[in-house]
Amino acid sequence: MSYKLGEVLLSREVIAERVKEIAAEIAKDSEKGKPLVIVGILTGASFFLTDLVRELPEDMDVRVDFMSVASYGDSTVTSGVVRIFHDLKTNIEGKNVIVVEDIIDSGLTLSHLLTLLKGRHPASLKVCVLLDKKERRKTEVKVDYCGFSIPDEFVVGYGLDCAGMWRHLKDIKGVIEEK
Ligand code: PRP
After folding, report:
1. Please, what are the domains in the chain?
2. How many A from CA of 103 to the centre of ligand 1?
């Protein structure tokens, strides 16, 4: 199987506009004077996260941290496990936390991760995703902030990859699979 870049599905302008809107929602909902910890899940979400936090007001107390995880929630392995490759440096106990993901698909990664983070007793724990493939969901996850709901299509760019490639594209594009 080889892959070719397809059409632009979400342009950089459309993404930038939506990122601003989400940042405004987050700012409106945030508790004044309390730190907000934004947790990015590597690698894909780092692109979205860095644009998102730079749209937050300067007078907000915003902290940024990252985790690298892999979910082993499929049927072949015991579910409910998320393997941590890189953990947070921040102690989130008593803090307001927003987990930022580039995409939610089956929901298994986020579901397991949220269970793990809840165990660290944050004051609140919310989820922000750029893309939501709702029809692929295997487990329910409450998404508090969502950029775009998209159909079940293979997409790359703006952090999303195809075997490690094309994360660096400014627009989100489709992928054409060729046999
Ligand atoms: C993607 C995405 C989520 C996960 C979503 O990560 O960033 O972490 O898959 O899928 P799910 O809802 O079915 O669990 P990926 O494993 O591709 O890692 P990457 O961000 O490093 O590309």
Report:
1. 11-149 (3.40.50.2020)
2. 7
